[in-house]
Structure formats: structure tokens, C-alpha cells
Amino acid sequence: MATARFHQALGTAQSHQHLQNSGSHHEFGNASLKLISKGFKVDFGLSIRGGYSSCMRKSGVIQASTSQTSVVQLVSYLPNNSSDELRRKPSEAALILIRHGESLWNEKNLFTGCVDVPLTKKGVEEAIEAGKRISNIPVDMIYTSALIRAQMTAMLAMTQHRRKKVPIILHNENEQAREWSRIFSEDTKKQSIPVVTAWQLNERMYGELQGLNKQETADRFGKEKVHEWRRSYDIPPPNGESLEMCAERAVAYFKDHIEPQLLSGKNVMIAAHGNSLRSIIMYLDKLTSQEVINLELSTGIPMLYIFKGGKFIRRGSPAGPTEAGVYAYTRSLALYRQRLDDMLH
Fold this sequence. Notes:
The record marks 273 as: Transition state stabilizer. This protein is 36% helix and 16% strand.
């Protein structure tokens, strides 16, 4: 009973959960567990080292409902947090960003943009590894682009989640699509995670560069011109989008659709693309146009933000797995959970 209650407490990130147990106090490492007769309290502090037509598709909105979940107490694992911060505030939620795993055209070093190509074997492995790194963070809703590589990444990542809920894309294109994709079982709805697909989260549209490799592109347009298109904020390639244009649609969608979910306390995962995510990070971290063009996101590396008090607090780096990020927190949480399991048994 104690173990089951403990898992429930960690899974829903409640600060207190009632247990029937005798009073005791245990310490290991820099974490402590206090068990009291009418409940338990976990006090811990783990330190961390540390033309547009091809893009514009209709978005599919999930109708399945899911119970709102409190954010895992990852904020509390950071240095200098008091025990009072273990109590979750209503405005606190987790935001996970994942750039899709390696695609077939990433592997071939081709400009992909809005062309719909799947993941490579390596990309599948990256998506699964990303899922392991976020497996202890509650997810209430998932947003992806309309492109298969982002959707594959989200689905594969969630196969590793400890809650074993199933991400389900339902369709909202018309009345028939809504009716045919409706879930009638309330129990099944509780076991699923709503997935929203939106073309606004698609990769930047590279226009005439799409499908060309770097050498072909340099031969056709000139090396300096290609560098300008790739590394400028507001200069688009022929018949394509600039990063600024990509940011306009991606950030507007984030503000209108995703931010309200976070404000309501829901934990959200976004699986999307290098440029759409760079655009969102620019908004979250208040980066300048010069700073954002120098931001690189690794494929399959999760990035975590905590939305708290109307502000976004970054808890992971986009630079890669060697940086202090989501993996560090979830690995520590898994170790801590195992030690507590062993003790309670």
C-alpha cells in the first residue's frame, strides 16, 4: 500500500499523500524522506551540474479528454529552492520541446523544409531515447506539426513514458471526420493523451532549396547567397520563408493555442522542427534576431521549461546531451524513486 501510494504521489506530483505508517525519518545522499503517522512528506534537493501552399495544412484537433496532471517537482531539484516550493501553484506547468529525430533527408544533407519525409533508423532511436529522458514528466497534451517526422517522434517518445497513456490523433477536418474519430469510452479517454497537429508548427518552407543538397545549392545560387538565406533572420530563399516569417506563424499559434493550456496548469509537449522551435524559444527566452539565428537544436534532445507565475523558466539547454537538461533531472528522479521503492519494500 505504501509503495502504491508513493508512486501515486510522485506520478501526480502532489507535495503530500496520506500513508498509514509509523513515524520514521530516512536519509540517503542529499535527500531525505519523512514518514509520519498520518501522511508523508518528501524533502529533497538534488544538485545539478552542470509559396506557402505546401506548408499550410489543416490542423487536426484531439477531442479526447484527459485529467489534468500536476507538474513533476523538477523545479524542486534545482539548487537554492526551499521546501515551501514543493507546493505546486495553480499556474505552474511543464513545457517540453523536442526537435524530431533524424529524417531521411537530414541523413542525406538535403534541405527538407515542408517536404514530408519519415525518420531514419537513427531518428527512431533518437525519438525513443528522448522518450526515456522525459518518462517521469507528466504530459497532458501533445502538439506536433503536420509532418510525419514530428508526429513519429512524439508517438515513439511516448512509448517510453511511465504512465503508458496512448497519444491519439483525432480529426477535426469536417463533421464526418469528427464523428468517425470519436472515442465513446470514458475509460479509454482517461488512458489517452490528446494530440493536436498544426501546420503552423511545420518546418520553415525553404522554397526552391527544398530537395537540394548543400553542394547543389551552392553551385546553383552561389555560396554567399545560400549562407545569407540560411543565416539571416529576415531574408527568405526564392519562393520560401525567412526565419522571421516562420516565427510569425509558429509564435502566434503558440500564444493562441498552447500558452492557454499551460496557463490552465496542463503539461504540454511539442514535437516539431528546428526553425519552428527556434522561433518559440526566441519568444520564451526573449532572444534577439541575432541571437536566434545562432541557436542550434540537436535532433531528439528534449528541452524543458517550467511555466510559473506567468513566466517561462528554462530547465534545459538546446545545445545537446552534454549540457544540463531534462536528462539530468529525470535520471536523478529515477534513481531517487528506486531508492525509495527499496526502502518502502
